[in-house]
Amino acid sequence: MTKDKRLPTRSSATKVAAFLDKVASAPVVKPAGQRGRLIFALDATASRQPTWDRATHIQTQMFTKTSSLGGLEIQLCFYRGYGEFNYSPWYERSRDLLKRMTAVFCLGGLTQIRKVLKHAIKESKKQKVQALVFVGDCVEEDVDQLSQLAGDLGLLGVPVFVFHEGHESRAARAFEHIARLSNGAYCPFDADSPQQLKELLSAVAVYAAGGRRALQDFSKDKGGPVRRLVHELGKRN
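-> structure tokens emitted (237 positions)
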């Protein structure tokens, strides 16, 4: 367990820099005439039930905010319990995603972020994925391994948008590393503010459907968390 909880060492800095150089040349592209594709991944271990319920209620926003941009397909992923990892079909309608989410309840267990990242790589190799959203509160895995997978996603042009619930410092450092290597963005959020999570999820949906310019337009009248997300994304491009 001690090995699994270690952070990337200073010796990994060269690898990080090499990944970032490659990531910088991997643009985000959505083929003309196709809907944007977004993987919506959540930690469904026991501590996450309140935020799961909130996300279930507000997920419609991810579809409605993108209708004028060509629409969006969303795939739900989650892990829970003893090694359980699930992913849904690709949904084009909010009611289908809602039906799937309301059937899920959270179970205690360890994090399985590695499975989320590996799945996103597999999906994007089959058909381009514009973004991966991950909502979680802790990391209980080898961060060097997660960093390698995040770098692979960066090379595929799949940024990871990590929304961190809580203030756990080790998780924050690991999540920031994942976001940086994938050319995405890290943003902590207040679990007691559903409006904040709604705006953040809507922002990434707009990005997946319409690209960076659409996200910048969307953020003009939004609050601090969304603007911070745009700022973080801008620093990586």
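The longest helix spans residues 194-219.
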